């Protein structure tokens, strides 16, 4: 029969292991929450049809136009895997955790017409192939760096 002292040691050891597992799960949930937010705000593949109203529709659908209009937001129209690959061998490190894609992606930038962030929001669309710059955490994209003039020079 297991003595009280042995049982106490067993639970103490199990408690430490359980704590480590729970802490790791919370950390991973934080990373995946950031990734899910990135996908909600910047991923749309294939590009949803919307004609002239694409930006108005998607910004509203994704919750980016209330309670205030988000002044600018970019959507990437490619697979999650190709976007995530920029965090690895398909991206070039810039400063900090910024990564510059080695290939262009088809993207749409939605910008508010005028200067008001008060709904109803009215957006204009700018769609074109572009290099993307993202922030990565644990191999996942978590932030899109909006249309900065980063230069990428391929070294030969």
From TrEMBL:
Start and end residues of each Ribonuclease A-domain domain: 31-148
Keyword annotations: Endonuclease, Hydrolase, Membrane, Nuclease, Transmembrane, Transmembrane helix
Record bears the keyword Transmembrane: yes
CDD domains: RNase_A_canonical (cd06265)
Bilayer-spanning residue ranges: 6-28
GO molecular function list: endonuclease activity; hydrolase activity; nucleic acid binding; RNA nuclease activity
GO biological process, one term: defense response to Gram-positive bacterium
Family, as annotated: Belongs to the pancreatic ribonuclease family.
Protein name: Ribonuclease A-domain domain-containing protein
High-level lineage: Eukaryota, Metazoa, Chordata, Craniata, Vertebrata
